[in-house]
Design brief:
about 30% strand, about 190 residues, two-stranded antiparallel ribbon, alpha+beta, about 20% helix, six-stranded mixed β-sheet, tt1808, chain A
């Protein structure tokens, strides 16, 4: 049983913190400060965004398959659970959302989310956030682990996320939903391409 005296933070508490300039997430009723990224985390976030830039445009053309809006570090509201996450990298299919979401926090459900693990975020990324994303029907969830240089790819299933790919530095993969192109997993962690 939980602590009956515990007070859960609300969306109003989140809005107040945001108005004070605090960078926080609202996870499981807690206002959680967003920690400064370590170099390995920052590298993985930047490299992942760069590797997926071929998708971050309208469909087709010589620069890549396109078809996505891809963003980093923008708050997303999950209304069923009254939570607000600041995802490392996430995106929306343009065939579902013709215009880039502009609200703060974003109120549209992402089609793909990637979280980059760190010691302070691993439990929330692997348990709390994953549970919330599944409940809200986010089709694809990636976990990027800079410490172990691994990429875990999950697809939404009726009873939870289903693991569809486990890869590490040295592997070249086609990872859904971006399986139109190959990704050298080591590049996410700053390795030179094979």
């Amino acid at each position: 049983m939980g602590d009956p005296a515990r007070t859960h933070a609300t969306l109003a508490d989140y809005a107040d913190a945001h108005a004070r300039g605090e960078v926080v997430e609202l996870i499981d009723g807690d206002l959680v400060p967003r920690a400064m990224a370590r170099p390995a985390h920052g590298t993985a976030q930047a490299k992942l965004g760069a590797l997926l830039d071929r998708f971050n445009r309208g469909r087709g053309g010589p620069r890549g398959p396109g078809g996505w809006w891809i963003m980093t570090e923008v708050e997303v509201l999950y209304p069923q659970t009254s939570e607000v996450f600041r995802h490392d990298v996430f995106g929306f299919r343009r065939d579902r959302l013709a215009a880039r979401p502009e609200s703060t926090p974003v109120t549209d459900r992402p089609d793909w989310v990637a979280e980059i693990l760190s010691g302070s975020t691993a439990r929330r990324d692997l348990v709390s956030k994953q549970r919330t994303l599944h409940r809200h029907g986010v089709p694809h969830y990636w976990i990027v682990d800079p410490e172990h240089e691994t990429l875990l790819v999950f697809r939404h299933g009726p009873d939870g996320y289903v693991s569809v790919l486990n890869a590490g530095a040295g592997d070249v993969v086609r990872a859904e939903p971006f399986d139109a192109v190959e990704i050298d997993v080591g590049e996410i962690f700053g390795h030179e391409p094979a």
